């Protein structure tokens, strides 16, 4: 992706690079797997440096061991944003649907669920359907 990043930056389009696990490459990476273990750590560090040289304004580091996230952050001067890359990145991000508890099923280890909005929304939708079915919604207070 380096030539594309260089071209975009030269065209005035800001680019945040994405390294480690990249969801669009899940099948090529062998599934939902941690990246950057062992000798592969240096490859990620080198890739981050190359993206910095290409003009990226920041690097998103996804699903790598914490020590690799730290090493990348120390190796480059542009900001790093971690998602499952330890607490030594310059910033953190979570997919809001995961963080808010909207997704069902197995969540990645790095996701912390701060709420259970899925249950709240399920209950609200069920109650709405029941009231519409019973004819109690909309009531006089909801009617012009």
TrEMBL record:
<dbReference type="GO" id="GO:0015940">
    <property type="term" value="P:pantothenate biosynthetic process"/>
</dbReference>
<dbReference type="InterPro" id="IPR015813">
    <property type="entry name" value="Pyrv/PenolPyrv_kinase-like_dom"/>
</dbReference>
<dbReference type="Pfam" id="PF02548">
    <property type="entry name" value="Pantoate_transf"/>
</dbReference>
<dbReference type="GO" id="GO:0008168">
    <property type="term" value="F:methyltransferase activity"/>
</dbReference>
<comment type="similarity">
    <text>Belongs to the PanB family.</text>
</comment>
<dbReference type="InterPro" id="IPR040442">
    <property type="entry name" value="Pyrv_kinase-like_dom_sf"/>
</dbReference>
<dbReference type="InterPro" id="IPR003700">
    <property type="entry name" value="Pantoate_hydroxy_MeTrfase"/>
</dbReference>
<keyword id="KW-0479">Metal-binding</keyword>
<dbReference type="GO" id="GO:0003864">
    <property type="term" value="F:3-methyl-2-oxobutanoate hydroxymethyltransferase activity"/>
</dbReference>
<keyword id="KW-0489">Methyltransferase</keyword>
<keyword id="KW-0808">Transferase</keyword>
<comment type="subunit">
    <text>Homodecamer; pentamer of dimers.</text>
</comment>
<dbReference type="GO" id="GO:0032259">
    <property type="term" value="P:methylation"/>
</dbReference>
<keyword id="KW-0566">Pantothenate biosynthesis</keyword>
<protein>
    <recommendedName>
        <fullName>3-methyl-2-oxobutanoate hydroxymethyltransferase</fullName>
        <ecNumber>2.1.2.11</ecNumber>
    </recommendedName>
</protein>
<dbReference type="GO" id="GO:0000287">
    <property type="term" value="F:magnesium ion binding"/>
</dbReference>
<dbReference type="GO" id="GO:0005737">
    <property type="term" value="C:cytoplasm"/>
</dbReference>
């Amino acid at each position: 992706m380096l030539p594309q990043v260089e071209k975009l930056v030269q065209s005035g389009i800001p680019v945040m690079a994405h390294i480690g696990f990249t969801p669009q490459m899940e099948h090529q990476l062998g599934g939902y797997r941690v990246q950057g273990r062992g000798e592969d750590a240096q490859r990620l560090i080198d890739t981050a440096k190359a993206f910095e040289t290409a003009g990226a304004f920041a690097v998103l580091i996804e699903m790598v061991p914490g020590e690799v996230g730290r090493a990348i952050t120390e190796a480059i001067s542009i900001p790093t944003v971690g998602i499952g890359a330890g607490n030594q990145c310059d910033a953190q991000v979570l997919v809001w649907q995961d963080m808010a508890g909207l997704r069902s099923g197995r969540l990645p280890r790095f996701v912390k669920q701060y709420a259970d909005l899925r249950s709240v929304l399920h209950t609200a939708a069920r109650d709405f359907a029941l009231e519409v079915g019973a004819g109690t919604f909309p009531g006089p207070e909801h009617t012009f």
